[in-house]
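User: I'm designing a mutation panel for Fatty acid desaturase domain-containing protein and want to avoid disrupting the core. Could you give me a predicted structure to guide residue selection? Please restate the sequence first so the numbering is unambiguous.

Assistant: Good idea. Sequence first, for numbering, then the predicted structure tokens:
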Amino acid sequence: MASTLTNRKAASSKASSPAPTVVEENVPKYLVPDITVKDLLGAIPQHCYERNFFYSSLYVLWDFAWLGVFLWTASTYIPKITPENVNLPHPALYKVARGAAWLFYDFCAGLVGTGVWVLAHECGHQAFSTSKFANNAMGWILHSALGVPYHSWRITHAKHHAQTSHLTGDQVFVPKTRKERGLPPLDAEKENLEGTKVSLDLQEIFSEALEDAPIVSVLWLTAQLLVGWPLYLIRNATGQRSYPRFTNHFTPKPPLFAPHQFTDIIISDVGVFIWLAAVAYSIKTWGFLNVFRVYLLPYLWVNHWLVLITFLQHTDPALPHYQASAFTFPRGALSTFDRELMGGPGIIGKITGWICATATHGISETHVAHHICSKIPHYNAWEARDAINERLARDGIFVQGNPGTWSEALRVIRECKFIEDEGEVRFYKNAQGKAARVPVFSSEGVSDSGVDVQ
């Protein structure tokens, strides 16, 4: 009898408790693309597919010529910032001026060095030349000079291209789920799967668990830009979390590599070993400070640009992520953004955008075309991009994101907190549990007369 009374009391309390205040927002719909590979490739002019070893090699020479000009200018003129040559108001300013000049050299060399990285990346896609040997030889040399295991990364990067935004198949920038973030399970009374309805009390819970102070976000972004790339190679940071612990790009074994790829991985490791030995020998010969300001700081800038570019290409609250049942290659290729690197409104934005796009061979500005066909060389990718965008516009598909800047990266970090544990198409939710897009398939909301009633 007591048990029955207790149950009735609990039921009465539950019935009298106020319903949660649920806030519903009007969120833009994302029509999941049904375009075919044939449609995408057919939109690209045939001459864009042409690869030329000689023409590609000119870009390598061009980049190294600029690196030589930067180094010669810095080593010739920075030591001349002395009282005998320059009049500064205080003696301490001469050291400051020389340091600032070297930092400017490091920035410029790092930006052009990223262009070298992009050319090596094209070799991995066999976009540098029609010769596989020439592609792999040039790619191994250029990537090894930047501390990258050429074949190892080439292999995993190909998997990324084949399964971009595939939740269990993509190799990098894989979103964390609600469960992985330690959040409470989905409560249908307080929220919906799409992220358009979230109760106020649940928003507070999410905010307490996910909202980072601005300084924390800045520090996290800084760490990612500086060491995110080597950590991905060494310990699979931001990669598939289903992979075993200690998964890395240097050990020739699954899950990243198949047995027949053993030799390629060892060759890649040898390239990195030679690079490390060359850096160590240089430090012994010329001293750490000289090597640090001439090579190591530009190397860190290369890592920075690489992470900034790729992070913003594949991460945004407006970009979808697919479960296996909904994934297709075209959907994956179109789940990325073109972004104008360091661009923006006004004359300054146009100048900085042009400089960065030129120095990095348009890797950020033509990324969607690169995902549609990775064998298109960068010098043809601009025309391919325009042709693809014209075709996509006919289906109402637009793949131009905001300019790729540090402030944009910070915005994305603060807006992309987690995805749901279920759903064929998932978008990031923010620190209040809200999504920026709702996926809609072309067959949804259409009457049997063929008229769209949404």
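For picking mutation sites, this is relevant: Confidence is low (pLDDT under 50) at residues 1-16, 445-454. The CA atoms of residues 193 and 422 lie 8 Å apart.
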